[in-house]
Write a structure and sequence with these properties.
The complex is a heterodimer of chains A (about 110) and B (about 110). In chain A, about 0% of the residues lie in helices and about 45% in strands. Chain A has no helices and 11 strands. In chain A, about 35% of the residues are buried. Chain B is mostly beta strands and about 110 residues long. Chain B contains no helices and 11 strands. In chain B, a hairpin with a 6-residue loop joins strand 9 and strand 10. Chain B is globular and about 40 Å long. The chains are: A mainly beta (about 110), B mainly beta (about 110).
């Protein structure tokens, strides 16, 4: 069964500290993984996807197939990074549907 | 200005009533999706449609119905059979291969 697990409901760090939001997935094939972000009073939006191998707003995520993980990292957190973050998996053949994790709220304190 | 529009933003329903949530997109996306967002449970897929006049059940389709008569529109009806309809509903669309664009959501409350 396809599943995405984000073990932390809330992650609280101080400004300038490193951040790692954990995401583990369960899928037998070759998944496509995404991170979505929802800032306060804004729409859910795509942050990054693993096939792009890009860094957005200083965030990176590497797909580790051995550990079935796709953790989101940023070396120095900023207050504007405070938001809800969702990890998502697309694995079904060509349906495009995404399976989302439970979400992690990141709180960056001044 | 391309985008995806959900209406209304807030909706109140009496028990036993059906209500329909609107979702319209002008992005020329083939696929559209409805998710339900509950605290601590993430987003759960209700229904999705990959092309006009075709749609499939997601993980929590019971008590909901949809139609896809036009590419731009994918309305969701919450029926009286849905036991716990109070939630935040999100619509999304995507091209054949790509990330989602989300609407701003509709908050439904049963009174």
């Amino acid at each position: 069964a396809q599943r995405v697990t984000q073990p932390e409901k809330l992650l609280s760090v101080f400004k300038g500290a490193p951040v790692e939001l954990k995401c583990n997935y369960s899928y037998s094939g070759s998944p496509e993984l995404f991170w979505y972000v929802q800032y306060s009073r804004q729409r859910l939006q795509l942050l990054l996807r693993h096939i792009s191998r890009e860094s957005i707003k200083g965030f990176t995520a590497d797909l580790n197939k051995g550990e079935t993980s796709f953790h989101l990292k940023k070396p120095f957190a900023q207050e504007e990074d405070s938001a809800m973050y969702y990890c998502a998996l697309s694995g079904s053949s060509n349906t495009g549907k995404l399976i989302f994790g439970q979400g992690t709220t990141l709180q960056v304190k001044p | 200005d391309g985008g995806i529009t959900q209406s209304p933003k807030y909706l109140f329903r009496k028990e036993g009533q059906n209500v329909t949530l609107s979702c319209e997109q002008n992005l020329n996306h083939d696929a559209m999706y409805w998710y339900r967002q509950d605290p601590g449970q993430g987003l759960r897929l209700i229904y999705y449609s990959q092309i006009v006049n075709d749609f499939q059940k997601g993980d929590i389709a019971e008590g909901y119905s949809v139609s896809r008569e036009k590419k731009e529109s994918f309305p969701l009806t919450v029926t009286s059979a849905q036991k716990n309809p109070t939630a935040f509903y999100l619509c999304a669309s995507s091209p054949r291969a790509g990330g989602y664009t989300f609407g701003s959501g509709t908050r439904l409350t049963v009174v």
